[in-house]
Amino acid sequence: LNERIVVENPDDEFGHMARVLNGLLARLGESFEKLQHFTSDVSHELRTPLASIRSVGEVGLQEEHSAERYRDIIGSMLEEVARLTGMIDTLLTIAQADSGEVDLHRTTFVFAELVQESVTVVSVLAEDKKQNILVTGESELEISADRGFLRMAVINLLDNAVKYSPPESTIRVTLRDHKDTEGTAESVAVAIEDEGPGIPEDKRERVFDRFYRVDEGRTRDVGGAGLGLAIAKWAVEAHGGTITLKPRAPRGAIFSVEIPVR
Ligand code: ADP
């Protein structure tokens, strides 16, 4: 795919055609390279939990253990299985999204209720870290959207805020309705602010890429696959919405989502 068509006279019709074709070839080459990276990243990511299931299983078989120890072993194997399942589900959704096969199952619901429900889902993790999730702002608008996909997007953002910010910190969730000058509903918005390390400016674009992690060391302990933001961005954009990232002063990140009412 690195072949290029060479012509003698770039100004005649053949020269023009060759330029068009070379442009196409270059784009095809890029897509092909991305696909290759994606495939090797996927294989790598799937191997990590598999390797850990295997080694935990081997430890279990090496000698006799107490019943309690066996329970721990099975528990950690099941945790890895859950991680693997989650990753495969996400990958399937991404693959469907790529091929344009995903239908949005739109229903009408109050966006603020979905956000509140997502906060409840992550609050168990936040409590473990003694973090406080504070929901403020006014929002009453209904939207017509795919509830499952948007819920996944909001949960991913909240989950990151919890994972990457320190114990006993506060996560602020702010809701807002946008209306035009005549008061007609336009969009709903939610901002999620944390007091974590934030994301360096030169990495802010890339955090939305698949498998991208800002700092392998930092994220390895919390065990992310680098897919959460990619899938959140896809889900938001599939609704014609936007997802943005801004730094927070003095530290932390602010992820904002805005979804048009229809
Ligand atoms: P992961 O599964 O690794 O969390 P994501 O796609 O959700 O993957 O996020 C990509 C990377 O962006 C993370 O690995 C992390 O380095 C960084 N990141 C995401 N959210 C935050 C946040 N709230 N604060 C700091 N870094 C973050």
TrEMBL record:
Reactions it catalyzes: ATP + protein L-histidine = ADP + protein N-phospho-L-histidine
Alphabetic keyword roster: Kinase, Membrane, Phosphoprotein, Transferase, Transmembrane, Transmembrane helix, Two-component regulatory system
Enzyme Commission number: 2.7.13.3
Signal peptide positions on this chain: none
Domain HAMP: 1-33
Keyword Signal: no
A molecular function (GO) term: kinase activity
Main location: membrane
Subcellular location: Membrane
Keyword Transferase set for record: yes
Class of enzymatic activity (EC top level): transferase
The protein, known as: histidine kinase
Whole sequence portion shown: 208 to 469 of 469
